[in-house]
Input
Amino acid sequence: MKRLVGLICPRCKKDLVENEEGVECPACGTGYTFNEGILSFLTPEDRFNETLYEEHQIANWLQTSDLRRRIRSSPFLSLLNAIRIRFSLSGRRDRVFLKELKRSRTPNPLILDLGCGGGRHYFCRFGRVVGIDPVLPLLQRARELYDEVYQCNGFHLPFADESFDFVVSTDVLGHLENRDKDLLFSEIHRVLKKGGRTIHCSEALGDSPWWRFARSYPDLFQKYFIDLPGHVGMELPSEMRARFLKHHFREVRFSKLYSLIQEPGALSSVFDNEYREKCRCMRALVAMDKLVARSLILRELLNVILEPLAQLDDALTPLNYGGGLLTVHEK
Ligand SMILES: [Zn+2]
Output
């Protein structure tokens, strides 16, 4: 079978050979087989990854993938979405990805989507896409869009050195334990071509007044900011920046998301619980936020109005206010 990238053994990094059941490492003898039609590099010891995510999280991700499918199949919704991406606060992350990928000097670049979930169709407009994820039901979705998908984690990638022009991820870095991140970063560096770029949109441990309020109740913080969304590896923006530099990436862009100005619906998504009862001000804010977020039209209209204010916010507040990051680095 002709593949877009050379596959190597995630354990010993030697070239793999294809056989009837999948692929095999001639050096260490490990075989990797198909899991419901998708080549899987999760060894029995690694399979804990399959149960790492709870059903409700997988259901949420599948829902997002359903919504993307609906948008793709309707020209009208696609147009609205294109306008949203161009002008609104909620379109920021997509905007950065599009801008960066458009700039690619390589024709038909090879893109690795780390933790691809159900996949993003617009990556395919710019090149050939390989997706990896440990969650099988999501990979089945991504397979409908991407050229190749593999079941594996990001810590031991089964790809040859310098294979990709881009390595991208969205909402992945905050879901990985900090102690494992150096492993991931060195793998990204290894599989990226020289001059290739790595683009990430990720969660960060913000230090804005919102976050300080949240953290002043450690039990609630653990429950609603860490456990429930599965954000086990949150770092301050400055810590994330240092990590990229430590792995010899050249910084092209390092900007924060969600500083003081929040997208409609964001506050109620994290504070509409016991937090609400902690202060009257928060209760009022949550009620207001829920009201505006209920209508899709109103929410997106506000998103457009808020975008220039958010740019001002970005320019004036400290880097560590960011509850999220948009980063571009070059090898
Ligand atoms: Zn091996």
